[in-house]
Amino acid sequence: MRAEDKAITADEIHDLGRRAAVAGAESSVEDHLLEHAAATSAHAAASARHVFDGLDAVLRGESLADELVARLGRTELDALEAVRVAASGRDPRSTRTVYAEDRRDLLEQALATLQPLLAVAHDPTLPDLMSRHAAVVDEVTALRQTLGGLAARQALFVPAGEVARAALDEDDDDGDEDEDEEDDATPAPRRGPDEAPP
After folding, report:
1. Does position 168 have pLDDT exceeding 80, yes or no?
2. What is the mean pLDDT of residues 114-121?
3. How many Å is the maximal CA-CA distance in the chain?
4. Hey, how many other C-beta atoms are within 10 angstroms of the C-beta on 117?
5. 101, exposed or middle or buried, with CB in 10 Å at 0-12, 13-18, 19+?
6. How far is 59 from 139, CA to CA, in rounded Å?
7. Cβ contacts of residue 41 below 8 Å, gap of 6+?
8. Closest listed residue to residue 118, CA positions, set 64, 53, 171
9. Which of 73, 69, 97, 75 is nearest to 85 (CA)?
10. What is the pLDDT of residue 157?
């Protein structure tokens, strides 16, 4: 070999250094992303465990522990309360019974809200969550079947007009009644056959 072939120019040294720095930076970014992903995964798993704890409690008719309430967000707490109403048929804010069809709707809305956290249970590295997910699916399936049967029976016994009137009564309970609605509700005076309307 010739001496010229063995010599490395300053530009080549600079280029090799730059490539090494870029490779080191990429490795550092990859390491950071992996650490962040692991932390995010651990946080998601912990949040999912809290939601499963909450679902277990409300499906058994128990109240949520204060520690659990402190760890859950407002969205999750609202969804768990909707599951409670769906399971019990009672709205804790009023004395009214919730119809089965409405209970089914509440259940489905709550599950849709909780779905992103419940999906964490599909991670094969979290076998404890997978088994809890399977148990909750069984309980929710049973609740859906119960509500479906109740809705069918209620449809037989509660006339559609009754349900519509009940819904209107609930809307009027807010105290914001329009005077026009009150006037429409007052029956018109009876007139004789010879009397002309005013």
Report:
1. no
2. 89
3. 129
4. 21
5. middle
6. 8
7. 123
8. 53
9. 97
10. 75
